[in-house]
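Proteins fold reproducibly. Look at a concrete instance:
___
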Amino acid sequence: MNVFKIAALTLALAVTAGAAQAEDIITIPDVTVSGEVAFTTDYKFRGLSQTSNNPAVQGALSFEHTSGLYATLWGSSVAASTGSELNTVVGYVMPLNVGSYKASLDVGALRYIYAGDSTAGAEPDYNELFATVTAEGVVLTDDALSWGLAYSNEYFAESDRYLNLNVGYSAPIADTNIGLVTHVGYNKFRNNAMMNKALGTTATNNDNAYFDYKVGATASIQGIDAELAYIGSDIKKRDCVDGSVCEGSVVLTLSKSF
């Protein structure tokens, strides 16, 4: 499934969802359906390029129940020989009572699926459990601060245990439709060998973890959401088989929700 097939799939999802909404063919009580189609100049996941610094087309379809339960299907083109990544998510969002803040807890399970055969003799598909707490109005009226963690007992390419801790903050610029976004993630592996196996790095020291980060701005333009951000990691270029994949770069993402 290459980039053109991903584009056709996301377009079909948008048309199908739009038609169903217009005609109300089937209505499931208390369930809403939403989706998104996106184009990005580089699909970076936890600071590293998944498309060898090339563009990607992405799409998502979500089903949300008023109870807080939800399921999401997300796909993207990637640079690997498989050509595509498909993620399935099942989760639950619940409100939290945190003083005067509007807060929520999002917990769930995520399955990463890579089409085709195994990578270098190892199974590329893996599962993650995640939990994220988001609080709004922390500093400004419309800002949001999030803390999250994700855990896998068998990460990508059978690279054993993996833990991700992350913090994100977003805030609007007063009297504009422009917002600021920041993110920092800490990614820990069992040991240096497993980190190299998962990331395709060649580090020979004892490092078994790395940081990733993002700093950028968002805006809405004619109904299209745009994000321009600098995304990277602290992995040294010399420790990356393809050095450019580990280097930080400016990424433009355009998305449309339906």
In short: The longest helix spans residues 3-23.
